[in-house]
Request: fold
Amino acid sequence: MEPRVLTSKKPFTLKGFFLQWEWMLVLLFVAVIVMNVNLSDYFWDYNNLRDATMSFLDKAFIVLPMVFIIILADIDISVGSIVALSSVIMADLYAHGVPMELALIVCLAVGTLCGYINGLLIVKFKELSSVIVTLSTMIIYRGIAYILLKDQSVGKFPKWFNYLGWGYVGSIPFILIAFAVFAVLFGILLHKTTFGRKVYAIGSNPTASRYSGVQVDRIKIIVFTLAGLMSAVTALFLTSRMGSTRPNIATGYELDVIAMVVLGGISTAGGKGRMIGAILAVFLIGYLRYGLGLINISAQTLLIVIGLLLIFAVSVPKLKWKGTGAKGKAV
Amino acid sequence: MKQKMFADAALAVGTGQGAATKTTISAKFAKFRELGLLAVIVLICIGVQLRNPSFLTLENINDIAANTAILSILSVGMMLVIITRGIDLSIGATLALSGMIAAMTVKAHPGLHPLAALLLGFAVGLACGMVIGFLVAKVGILPIIATLGMMNVFRGLTYEASGGKWVSAHQMPDSFKQIATGSLLGINNLIVIAVVIYAVAYYFVSHTRTGRQVYAVGSNPESAEISGIKTKRILWLVYTIMGGLTGLAGVLWVSKFASAQGDTASGYELSVIAACVLGGVSIAGGSGKISGIILGAVLLGILNNALPMINVSPFWQNWIQGMIILAAVVFNALVKRGIDRNNLMRRKI
Reply:
């Protein structure tokens, strides 16, 4: 383990500035854009770009809290199921005559509760890793969604609800503005508050943090609860975009979200990474998918691409640090 | 504050002395874990039998055993992986890929010997496992991330290989289907294969040096490394074994259900993990017994068979399985706490 200084910053050098992972992401991003422009004449069109952005931004809301979770050296693979459960409960309530405004609040509450349960289980049973806890809640949450809706889909939401996923402010999509607001909030929380510093501290060394008075349990619960809340936010936007919901929506979202976060340079060993990297990775993967979709690459091939991208993103930093003795750790 | 701490300590010593003569309940349970599981299995069987008399017929029991065989073969590999503190989410996809490749090969060459098909599936699975083992052991990626990524790669490859089409029953030669339906000395082949694998696995984990090293790596990787065990090689080995067994199971699966699809066994890894944690394999690594996972797999197999028989909606099964996993891991954790507390007390005397 290399010693990490949390409070003082390294001296600024031009070389150090440009050798950051984020610049690598910017380069990759440019490469993807250039590739897309060459592959398809339709890519470089404002309307197309805008539509593409709107279609991949829904899961980006989960990326924000997932950055916190992975910095804590934990993981949450139940987020896709939380999206499904909160969306299904909202739709089911609305179908049974509950006003949409109330159903919407319930949706957020359900997501928050699911996240809180995850956090509580992880904190109460320290023997269990977050992998196994969120693996079982992943099955349970989606299981409840199936119990409620069976294999049906529910839709026909009021007109104003469509605005979330399809609306514009001027010519800017509403979902983009919402994402920007949340991204700034989470960025400030991570980089400018003591809460954020504590998250980094726990990720670097949980035992030392506990002994120096950081309330590790409380922070973990808050972070997992935030992940639940943001999953519910994703549920709102996703449901609005699709116009209906079914228990199998957002399957595999956890993979996409985790891929975006680790590609953004957030180390799975904990304690490292920045919000801006993850946000860049959201757009990188989003436009990559969109471009490959434009040239008729099948959804199955996209699976392979995203899977390999995830492996690539976690391997590169490991290979780089191999000489310095930093090691990965087990689950 | 200080006084309270002293009081707490005194209290702990007090209760410690009180309980020193008898072990805690949870520690006791750990010894009889298998008996407890067996009791649960018997209770479930009696309960279901009362509701539906066709449950405990010879035909249905044979059915359950054959269905459980594949699950229990996979549990052996998963147990080894979990013992080394890992997890493998990719096995559903590996199973589909190896099953699909075997099925497409027998479709193209109907004259192929069934054993060759089995070997082919085994080889494909072995290759998949080796890739994952390499990523986990040599590159140092977390098992959850490596297997999550490769799960999608393998699943995508399955679709690519088949072009999105199924290989269905009439395209497979009878000799291939007989791998799973045939029998040896009156016992279904699947059960025979599972029993052989269990015998080999039992010998491997209890009586070979490498097998014991798997436990050592799981209970304390650092000291295993220091005492000269090649930790990385062991890690690579367990994922390769997992892959090989999954490849084998893939051929058996396709032969049993007489169809190979792109989404074969999607999510099956969760059942396998459930069987392991039910059988007492600790997620924290280092412990797990062959006898435990047999019972875990049987219990799960019986539940899968019994729930539709007593008219439980299939939509409940997801939830039930998740609750079983959660309850089992929480229970394991509590038992472990009991044992630790018990050990602590004994040391005080």
